[in-house]
Amino acid sequence: MRHQTKQTLWIAIFAVLVLAPLAIFIPTLGPESRTIWRELSVGLGFLGLTMMGIQFIPTARLPFLGEVFPPDELYRKHHLLSILAFSLTLAHPLVLFIQNPYTLTLLNVWTAPWRARAGVASVAFLLVLVVTSVRRVALQLSYETWRLLHDVLAVAVIGLGVYHILNVNYYTSVPFQRGLIIGLALLWALMIVYIRVVKPWSMLQRPYEIAELIEERADTWSVVLEPVGHEGLTFKAGQVAWLSMGHSPFRIEEHPFSFASSAEHPERPGFAIKELGDFTSTVGHMPLGTKVYVDGPYGTFDLDAHPDAEFVLIAGGIGSAPIMSMLRTMADRKDERSVQFFYGNPTWETVAFREELADLEERLDLDVIHVLEKPPEDWEGESGFVTKHMLEGRLCEDYRDCQFFLCGPPPMLEAVEAALTDLGVARGRMRHEIRAQIHTEFYKMA
What radius of gyration do the chain's Cα atoms show? Predict the structure, then answer.
């Protein structure tokens, strides 16, 4: 099945799960209908709840979804859908209050029935969840504290929402509808158990340890792992994994990094980690033998998905990590295809893997175009940023037939993708991702 077809199929499945409770409005399945505004309020409530519950699925890092959707795309959709779910959930009581002001008495938690209290609490917790997510930095919440709070609030919102719906017991008095809501709630509960119990337990059975720590340029470390008591894992060049380093995988703290090593050597997976935050600044000081647990691989930033194409690779800073995995893999396979690599960095001294890239130019049909924001005085290469004008002058003659892989900070990706579009490169020939460490650090600082 083609990649695009798989994406369409899973999107259709998500849509069915979200819209399924609206089957109550089918005359033969639901109870007697009420006023249009009352029905609208109920419909909005059901949509908000199911959309909130569905959020457990894309964030569970299910392997079969990880092969179809890029991780950063799943998380971006999660953020957008969460905002939509919040809006729908909030609209549910607002429409009800406008239609029947008497229902405002349900906000009095001292006199309201428990089903109403649960509904009010669910919306209140949802509001706290949204505020702490949007204003995390202003509230001075650490990422790990926020994430734990986020998970607890999400479970509370869904649990109280389901209790509210089942105990209102109007539409759920119909066996079909009650069974559907209970079935969806069980699916969401299974996702929580999978995320917090099954996945960490499976990781615990397959530990790794740090075998090498190699200091690269630009405050970057190459971390090489060795499996302990197992054969390791296979991955595709360009994919990503979440690492729990120096602690149990049952802890809330984990960090995503791109594989930087060759996919031809799965027995020694390696990652390029740049010192960008509190955790990453400690990586270079971790003792050899430190236990590491790996959740992965994930992602569609995949060299093997294009067996016949020639490549144009464009990266900025630590976005070179998955690119290095691709180039190292091609070198180990003695791949003879042509590759251009536009690599943007602040200065010549901050070009990670500089010497190895020069060596790879000898082993591959590879042309590395360094682009420096602040070049030295005697610099004869490209300077500034990767622009349309630069690409137009340096791309190979048949570039429209090449496969493009773009990896770097969001502003860079947006600018480069727009430039390539202007140059006639089809969208289907561009694969871009805010990759692993870049995406996490960008989100933590947001």
Answer: 25
Q: Give the length of the chain.
A: 446
- For 171-192, the pLDDT digits (tens) are 777 788 888 889 989 998 999 8
d(CA 373, CA 348): 9
Tokens for 178, please give them.
């009650």
Q: How far apart are the first and last CA of the chain?
A: 37
What CATH code would you report for 3-202? Answer: 1.20.120
Adjacency order of strands within the sheet including 430-433? 382-383, 365-372, 338-345, 311-316, 403-407, 430-433
Is 434's pLDDT higher than 70?
no
Report d(CA 235, CA 241) in Å as an integer. 9
Hey, what CATH class is 303-445 in? alpha beta
CA-nearest of 304, 343, 340 to 425 is 340
Residue-level pLDDT at 29: 65
Q: Which of 354, 347, 432 is nearest to 384 (CA)?
A: 347
307 CB neighbour count, 10 Å cutoff = 7
Can you give the pLDDT at residue 27?
A: 66
The counts of H helices and E strands in the chain are: 13, 12
User: Which residues, other chains included, contact 311 with Cβ-Cβ below 8 Å and sequence gap of 6+?
Assistant: 303, 326, 337, 338, 339, 340, 402, 403, 404, 405
Strands (E), 187-269: 207-215, 220-227, 240-245, 255-258
Please tell me the distance from the alpha carbon of residue 401 to that of residue 33, in angstroms, as a whole number: 58
Task: Sketch the domain layout of the chain as residue ranges.
Answer: 3-202, 207-298, 303-445
Assess if CATH 2.40.30.10 describes domain 207-298.
yes
Q: What is the pLDDT of residues 124-133, one digit of tens each?
A: 999 999 888 8
